[in-house]
Structure formats: structure tokens, C-alpha cells
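Our preliminary data section would be incomplete without showing what the modeling component actually yields. Below, a chain of 709 amino acids is followed by its predicted structure, encoded as C-alpha cells that our downstream tools consume directly.
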Amino acid sequence: MDIMNTTEYQKQLTSIMETLAKTAVVELSKLFEENSTFLRLEISRFTSENESLKKKCHFLESELQSARKTAGKMNGTKAPGLTDTGHRPAIDNVFGKEWCMNLWRHEESKLGEQEDDTHLEPAVIIGEPVNLLEEEPDMIMIKEEAFEDCSSERIEEDQDNQSVKGTIQEEIKRILPELDSNKVHNVVNHLSFVVGVEKSEDLSLVEVSDLQDLLEPIQCRKLVKTFRQRESSGQMDGTPNEMTLTPLSSNESLLEQPMNNPFIPHYPIKSNWIRSFQVPWDRMSAALVHATSTGERARPGPRREFVRIVVAAMQVHCPNPNLAACGEVARSIVTTYPLTFGDISEEGEQLGNGFSCLQRQLKTRVEHVNRDVLEHRIRRPRRPSAKRAGQQDSYSGKKVRCKVDSYGCINWQPTSVPEGETSDSLEMKRKVAAEIFQSAGPRASELPNVEDLMQQTYVYQRHMINSCPPPTISEIEGHWPFLFTERGLCRHFKTLTGIDIRSRFSETLVVKANRILNYFTSQRLKWNEELQSILSEIDEDPDAASSNRTAISAILLMMKYFKEKDNSVFILADETATKMSIENEMSLPATPRLIMLGDTLLTSSKWFISIEGRVTHSIDNQLDFAAALSVFFGCFYVFNIEYQESASATLELIQRFFVRINPEGTKCTSKSGTSRRTGSAVQRKPQSFNTRVATFMQRLSEFEWKKTN
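Predicted structure:
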């Protein structure tokens, strides 16, 4: 019985175990089937992420190699592994993140890891730091949902991407043949991964700031200018255009170019007659021939006569040449005789692109000749651009860095820290300077050790000011209080632009202001009522004439001449007003203003400067108006502020006529403005040289020539 019971028990146990095993297998199979789809998707996602990380690693390795080569060139060594302990760290390696201090310290927390950290992207020097590894998975999740069915689509997409990259690479080689293949490869990868170029048409949207960390400034401008010219002429497929810009080779000497300027641009004109047009040099007057042979400036009369001759020759080929055609002809004339026809200041410096005035004269003559010929004046309707179709630019409220920020600067974004300095040592010096200011006040800016501290930390100052999004004025003042003194700001301006603005205004402000006053007072009857009123106010008290009054009078006259309102530059306040009372009682605009303390603007004797709605600079009582104007104008460059549209002409006149900063373009990029004639809102056209400023400077020169002859 015991044996039979044992056998029966074993059978029952075996049956139960088999049943449990079968049930477990069935349940496991169901569970596996239910989750297999999810597992495949997860595997697909991780595989895609790994592939993306591999691509990023290859890109960063190429960037690291490029950075090492650049560092080696800067240090005079090959620097294959950056093992030289005395090498100067590139600014990429130290300031590759935002300007906050904890991130600075993170970069050099371990000296032994300093060499391994040199692969930080140079693209984040100016712009906002980009975390490529965090942004990529989100994009891949969307793209890889249909894992099992999209392999062929991915292959086709990869082939398209490779084709686009090949096209971009060939385009860059054609424009900059001096670049080696490794450099070109790095630029293409940067455009694809960082900038986001997906097709050749996107190249026209690339900015100089997108490339300035990989290429020299001259090379960046060549690429961007050629990309945009090809887009405007419909030639983005890699085929050469009729009249595209011929880039300069980097090994060509700039001094061998006309007027020492490699950026006299060629306009992409589709008309064939421009290529074969010959300037009628043989029809120049004797006076003009003499001027071209001696390098003298063309006199107004012979110059106008030659403009008539040239326009007549142009109209043989085209009855109504457009502005671009006039610009191409003007460029050709100025290239041949830059000193005679070019836009040259009295100091011998080129103004803007060098031929804006002649271009405008040619176009004005064309319009004058065609004033009664209707069929020649009718223009082909302009195609609506994509921007007009949308009617407004998308503005997110978040400022990005662009070339206008570095307009007129020679040391806007330093590329390396001073010899022997680190992020920690620069931060320590910043704190020392701030403590000195707290204990000694603004007058400590005159101390030699403070001047040394500010000079040594210049790269640190620019890194903070140029960071994106840009810091507020209050934040900058909290870190760098000496920038908000007259002496500290002018020193920074000198390092930034190479111009001692304080000395420049002291030398030229009163002299050139007297020339402007003489121009207006000698032709009193031709001016409107507003100018007449200013001239009468100036003449009311001739005994009160002083250098301050003369300079203020000249600027006010220019503002009336340009039909700009006084309050777009000046704000009048009571003579007894203080910084606190001004901020509490007055509504100050965001853009810089020069606050004049006195009964009238002409009689003011004390000055403040306001930015972002608060008083930032107080000019000492013993300083003159030239010092106040130096600080006011310097703020636009030191703090990356654009000219306000309401005073853009006056500010550009100060820039070109008094300070003598004469790059091509303008520091006012506003797309809209207010008509000085009707007061209505109008669209502003981009200009390489403000036409009103150019006209005034030309008329002033002609007026003075007539008086001396």
C-alpha cells in the first residue's frame, strides 16, 4: 500500500508540474509577444542614438584636430597633442560656455584633464552653448518610429545628404581654393551639424558669425557674400554666374587692391552689356585728366560733366540702368582712379565701399534724363520675396549675435587669453578690480594697477558682453564697474577699435564743428524754419561762445538737417537734477541717451548717459562735452548696441566725420522707420553708406572748395 501510494503521489506531482510548466510557457510566450514590438522600437532607438553619437564624435575629433593645429600655429609649434606645458590656452577651451563663474571653474577643475577638454566647439564662443547630445535623441525618436519600413528611405536620405555635402564642399573649394581638404571638411560638417544647412539654398541664410570660429574674417565674408549673390541671381546649383563676385585669394596682398580695400563688391547683374561696357575715358575734360594723372580729387564741375558722359554711354546699351548697374560702373571707375573719384575723407581714409557717392550720382542722372520718358521709367514688377509674403520677420525676443555687433571693431572677440593666465586667475583679477571700485569709487580708474587689471581681463570682459543671450547693462555693471567710468570705457573702446576716442574728439570735435557751423551760417537763406531757429538761437549770445556750445550747436544743426528729433539723442534735465531724481522722475528709453543738465541744450554744463532706462555714466564736472560725447558714442560699440533708427544719420555722421570709423555697411539694421517728410511708417533699404550722410559730406567738401577757389 505504501509503495502504491508513493507511485500515485509521484504521478500526481508529475502531472501538476507538467501543467505548471505548460502554463508558464504559455504565459511567457504571451508576455514576449506583447512586448516584442516595444523592445524592437527601443533597440532601434538606442541603435540610432549610438550612430548619432558616433557621428558627433567624429565631428568633434575633426574639430579637436583643427583646434590643435591652430593652437600649434599660435604657439609656434606643431602641437600634435598639446603636450607643451607653456602653451597659451585658446579662448575656445577656457570660455567655451556661458560667462557664469561656476562653469568657468568647471573647465579647469582638473589640470590633468586640460588636454582632453580642448575639443569644445568653437561655435559656442559667441553664441549660446549648444548641447548636441541632448538635442539629437528627440529628433531621432520622431524619425525612427517606423523602424521596420524605413530602411530604404534612410538610405535615400543619406545619399541625398552626401550629395548636398558634396555640392557644398565643391562650392567652398571654388570660393576659397587655398583651404586644405581637412579644413573644408570641418566647415561642411559645421554647416550641417551646427548651423543646420540641409540643402544648397540654405547657404544664402548663413551669417558671418556662423563661420568666424572656423575661418578667418576675410574668408567668412567671401563665402557669405558669394552665397547671397548666387541666391539673388538664381545660381545656387554650383554653376558660375555671369557677374558673380570674384573672391580674393588669401595670399594676395591687400595693399595691392584698389584703395587698399578687398571688398569693393561686384553686383550680380544679369545684363550682358555690363560685361562689355567701356568707360569713355577719352572724353574726360582736361581738368579731369590732370586730376587723374596727379591723384587729385575731381572738382565738382568736371565730375558732373563726366557723370553725364558716362550715363549717355550707358544708355546706348540700356535706356534705364538700375542701381546695381550704376554701382558696377561706379566700381569700375573708382577701381581705376580711386583718389580722383572714390569716397575718400580729408584724412585719406575710404568711406564705406568707396563708390556710393558716384553710384548715386550716376543713378540720379539716369532718373533725370528719363524724367519725361514714360516707357523708360516703367519697371518690371518686383517679385514678392518670402519675407514679404509673411510680411514680418519672426522675432522671438531673444537677441542673436550678428555682424553689426562687431561693426567697426578690430578686437571684438579675442581668440586667446593673456600669456600665463587661466580662467581662475582672470576671475580673481575681476574680483580685485570690483573690490577696488567698492572701496575707492570711480576715481580709482585713474590708478595704474586698475588700468593693468582692466587690460589683462579684456578678453574676460568681451566674453561676457558678447555672450548670447546678451547680459543686461545692470549685470555688466555688477561684474565690471570700471566700464561705467569715463576713463574705463574709453580705454576699452581703444582696445576694441584701435581708436583713442577721447583724443580723437579733443582734436577734431571743435574744428569740424566750426566747419559745420560755417556751412550753415554762410547759406542761411536756403534752410528751413527749424534750421533758421537753431541758427538764431546760436546767434543770440555770441559772447557765450565756447567749445562745448560750438560742438552742441553743430550736432543740433545736423539733426535738424537730417530731420531727426532732438530727443532721439539728447534729453534735457534741470541743472540741479541728480542720478536718482532723473531715474525716478523721467521716463528714459532703452537706447543710449545723452542727458543734458541746464536751462537749454546749448547752455548745458553737466552730463549723464542713460542706457536701458537707467543712468549708467556720470561725467565729472571738470570734464567737457567732448568727454560726454566720447562716452555716449563709445557705449554703442563697447556694449554691442545698434544705432536707434530715429537718430541713425546723426550717429553715422559722428562715426564717419568725427571719429573716422569707416567700414562698409551701417550699425543700424532696422527694417522699418519713420518718414522724415510724411511721418508715416516706411520700409528701410539696406545701405552700405547712409545716403544722407554721404550727400552732406560731399556738399560740405564742395562748399569749402568753392570758398577757397
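Confidence is low (pLDDT under 50) at residues 77-155, 235-270, 385-398. Residues 2-75 form the longest helix (74 residues). Preliminary results of this kind motivate Aim 1 of the renewal.
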